[in-house]
Specification:
This protein is an all-alpha fold. It has seven helices and no strands. It has one domain: Four Helix Bundle (Hemerythrin (Met), subunit A) (Up-down Bundle), CATH 1.20.120. About 3% of the residues have low confidence.
Length: 225
């Protein structure tokens, strides 16, 4: 786990440097001013949210085929982190929307599909806490994960499929980002990788240890009886 600790340290240093890029290197947007700076947090959160749900989705499929609880643990941990990132995506998006659109929330296609995604994985986390055999809980959770991931492409392509006021990130003609803004947002997305991977590894290790302790306790109770 030491390598993940070093990676987390690199992530912290990159996150500190990204503040210089956000508030000094990247120009201030004319219309929104400094409120636009939240974009550099909002976009990485959204992208790594999708990555996390994709890992959970693939792990769920592998579990259904191989019945290996390692895949169930990875799917569960990825879904947990994805749910956290989805929550932060909605929060930062609402702050941005309040400044840009004058409201905290609007039923825009991208916002609505993201909220649906949030509710699906909220239900998933509830299922994970329900008292049922491990194999059954893993199977039910895997099905919910697979169904829930079907909403991810809808979130991604919603601005193209339906009329949306949500801005395009990299527009080819007009309304696009300046070069300094593009450099900054790419750096921020890459920085989140150094935070996401150690977080996933540490949480996965924690879940493995908790399950080992639970197995040991069950065995001790069985031997006492």
């Amino acid at each position: 786990m030491k390598k993940y600790a070093y990676m987390a340290l690199i992530g912290v240093l990159c996150l500190a440097f990204s503040q210089f890029l956000i508030y000094d290197y990247a120009p201030t947007e004319r219309t929104m001013g400094y409120a636009q700076k939240i974009f550099y947090y909002h976009l990485p959160l959204a992208w790594w949210c999708f990555v996390s749900f994709f890992i959970s989705f693939v792990s769920a499929i592998l579990y259904l085929f191989k019945k290996n609880m390692c895949y169930d643990r990875l799917s569960a941990v990825s879904a947990e982190i994805g749910f956290l990132l989805a929550t932060l995506t909605l929060v930062t998006g609402s702050i941005w929307g309040r400044q840009s659109w004058g409201v905290w929330w609007t039923w825009d296609p991208r916002l609505t599909t993201t909220l649906v995604l949030w509710f699906i994985y909220a239900a998933y986390l509830v299922v994970r806490t329900m008292a049922m055999p491990n194999e059954k809980r893993a199977a039910v959770s895997a099905v919910i994960t697979i169904i829930g991931f079907l909403d991810v492409p809808l979130v991604f392509f919603s601005a193209r499929l339906w009329r949306s006021i949500h801005p395009a990130v990299f527009a080819s003609k007009g309304g696009g980002l300046e070069a300094e803004m593009v450099h900054t947002v790419i750096f921020c997305v890459l920085t989140f990788a150094f935070i996401y991977i150690p977080l996933l590894a540490f949480r996965l290790k924690q879940v493995q240890q908790l399950q080992s302790m639970e197995t040991l306790r069950t065995r001790m109770l069985y031997e006492e009886n």
